[in-house]
Amino acid sequence: MRHSIRRGVLAASTVAIASLALAGCSGSTQQEEPPSQAEFDPITSIRLQLQWLPQTQFAGYYIAQEKGFFEEEGFDDVEIIPSGGDIVPQDALVAGDADFAVAWVPKVLGTLEGAGVELTDIAQVFQKSGTLQVSWAGDGIESVADFEGKRIGSWGFGNEWEIFAAMAAEGLDSTTVSITTQGFDMNALLDGDVDAAQAMTYNEWAQILEVVNPDTGELYQPDDFDVVSYEETDGAMLQDAIWADTERLSDPAYADAAVRFLKAITKGWLFARDNPEESAEIVYDIASNAEAAFPVGPTHQLWQMNEVNKLIWTGADFGVVDAAAWDQTVAGALSAKNQDGLNLITTEPAESAYSNAYIQQALTELADEGVDVAGDYTPIDVTLTEGGQ
């Protein structure tokens, strides 16, 4: 399923516009090259590859589309491409099937080393990890130290890296765990196929709390489970980020499009922060009419919107890559070994693997236009219902 807009065509005139060159440095030494003047035809049509089906995890992008923020930034055709697991976002970006992609940092680190390609994280949307490991209360898995010898559920595809990084940080033997591939739900835990199931705060954690406990006739409660939050461990890794083609960023037209794209989605996420109920309704409508979406309950989407906002709005400016969090993600990937005793990655990524130049340019321009790009999120109360309906 592809969701796109086609609005009034913006005249693609040749203009003189400030362009950014890729800084190519990471960490505290990151430097921005001074803007240069170049003439080019502005890019007005782009494709964004998501890493999953339509849901409020991606609200900022859908809001940017529905509220006309892409159009405000000069785009007349924006295609948002979902993935049901059959499309790897970073691979789609490398193949030229998308102009920008949403993907977790550790997953892309694996691609960078494994495929020898260059991609750049130009905006870190989620500032914190939302990954949990959930077990039944009383089963003895209250911390990462309890993982050894257990059946640990994971979706795979790089989602398991935080497990290994957290175990490595505590000097635990990852070869003692049995990583069991689970579905994108909590059935593996409910059916007893795993000792601890992977869950996102904004998705699967809600799913299990939307299930009726047969012993009580009421919904399961948080006290029914023990929960390990990776954000509270040294294994926490950066997740949803906006990735761009590193080589294309040397093209001033693409660099300009990157900044305008980031301005549009920043406005989308600001709207989602300030209007969580309306945003959830918008995405629920999109998901309900999509070719594939799971789950789509309106209450579940509102829960997800609430939880996603908590991961994005931490008091810092939107989208800026925190050097310490980036370094922790890389260090965790380098130190960890999987259940077969193999390293996840063996070398540090290239310095071009992230750059704050584009998001900072976008934020500066938005601030000049009177948009407040920083701030916290005040969570709302969401009462879960059976099935999230």
What does this structure look like?
The chain has 389 residues and is an alpha/beta fold. Helix content is 32%, strand content 16%. The chain contains twelve helices and 13 strands. It has helices spanning 59-66, 69-72, 89-94, 105-115, 161-169, 187-190, 204-209, 252-274, 276-288, 298-312, 323-335, 357-368, and strands spanning 3-6, 15-19, 36-40, 45-49, 77-81, 100-104, 119-124, 131-136, 151-154, 178-181, 197-200, 225-229, 240-245. The strands form four sheets. It has a six-stranded mixed beta sheet with strand order 1-5-4-6-13-7, sandwiched between helices. β9 (151-154), α5 and β10 form a beta-alpha-beta unit. The model is unreliable at 1-19 and 21-32 (pLDDT under 50).
Keywords for this structure?
single chain, 389 residues, alpha/beta, six-stranded mixed sheet, three-stranded antiparallel sheet, 12 helices, 32% helix, 16% strand, disordered N terminus, thiamine biosynthesis, signal, metal-binding, SsuA/THI5
In short:
The chain is of the alpha/beta class.
Proportion of β residues? 15-25%
Distance between the termini: 23 Å
How is the biggest beta sheet arranged? Answer: 6 strands, mixed
Q: Summarize model confidence as the mean pLDDT.
A: 90
The helical percent reads 25-40%
Q: Structural class of the helix and strand makeup?
A: alpha/beta
The tally of beta strands, per DSSP, is 13
Order of helices and strands, N to C?
Answer: EEEEHHEHEHEEEHEHEHEEHHHHH
- Report the radius of gyration as a whole number of Å: 21 Å
- Largest sheet, order of strands side by side? 1-5-4-6-13-7
Please tally the helical runs, counting DSSP H or I stretches of 4 or more residues. Answer: 12
Unreliable residue stretches: 1-19, 21-32
- What is the global morphology? globular
